[in-house]
Structure formats: C-alpha cells, structure tokens
Amino acid sequence: MTADEYLKAQEANKKIYELARNEEERRAFLAKMMEMEMKFVEENVPLIKVNETINNQSLNFTLSPQNKNKLDSDEAKTLFVKAKK
C-alpha cells in the first residue's frame, strides 16, 4: 500500500465513520482504520534501532516487521524491565 492509497482509504473511512448510525458502527470503522494504519506502518516504516546505556549496561535492539512477534517473548519483557530500572 502506497502513502497515497493509504491516505485515500483513510479519508473514505473517515467519511464513513462520520456517517455511522450508532456507536457500534463507529467502533467497527475505527478498528478498520487502525488496522489499515498498522499495516501501512509495517510495510513502510524503516527499522528502528535503539542503542541505550543504562547504569553502564548497554541495551541494543532493532524493531522491524520481521521481529515483531518476538516483542511478547520473555526475553523482550526482561529487556524492557531492565531498561526501566
């Protein structure tokens, strides 16, 4: 999905959202818009590299579509907790 396609789809979804008859329809369209946004970001946003030093300990990781499923792993949670300390 290109940026132009994404913007056109989001504009169409925004109009549909505004014309929704009830809260349930609004939530459904909002969920669809958010899903499209996540897909667009996955396909178009470059890798995010983080190099952080906390208390003389180095924390290095890369976020990318390829390793997105690893974010829920115990290792990722451990890194996050160490980073917060």
Structure, described:
By secondary structure, the protein is an alpha+beta fold. The chain folds into two domains: 3-44; 48-84, no CATH class. The protein is built from three helices and two strands, in the order ααββα. It has helices at 3-18, 23-44, 74-84, and strands at residues 48-54, 57-63. It has a two-stranded antiparallel ribbon with strand order 1-2. Strand 1 (48-54) and strand 2 (57-63) form a beta hairpin. Helix 1 runs antiparallel to helix 2 (23-44). The longest helix is centred in the middle third of the chain and has 22 residues, at 23-44. The radius of gyration is 18 Å and the shape is elongated. The termini are far apart. The model has no long low-confidence stretch (mean pLDDT 74).
